[in-house]
Predict the 3D structure of the following.
Amino acid sequence: VQLQASGGGLVQAGGSLRLSCAASGGTLSANTMAWFRQAPGKEREFVAGIMGSGITTTYADSVKGRFTISRDNTENTAYLQMNSLKPEDTAVYYCAASGSLVIFTTPPGYQYWGQGTQVTVSS
């Protein structure tokens, strides 16, 4: 399975972006998917996760109420809608997929990774 993340860019604080993660080479309808991010000099951190059904989601406290993760299993794609962006949201965002039925919040829980897309929020 290959994951392709897209949708990053430069946005002013308070703005919005929508990231997409398209899967190829297999179906991800049964997989847990997640978004992580990594800022320069920092470890990769969990942002949001969603189980295969699309019903169960988990968010990092820092993005609750601002970000929304969703998925379209017919399109084999996951999304991250990011609203009210802050400069501290600046990072490379990665999508990931796991065969687990648990939303892990650490990178070792995921077997498949996209290449990352840069999000820059200016103040």
In short: The mean pLDDT is 95. The CA atoms of residues 37 and 93 lie 4 Å apart. The two ends are 37 Å apart (CA to CA). DSSP finds no helices and eleven strands in the chain.
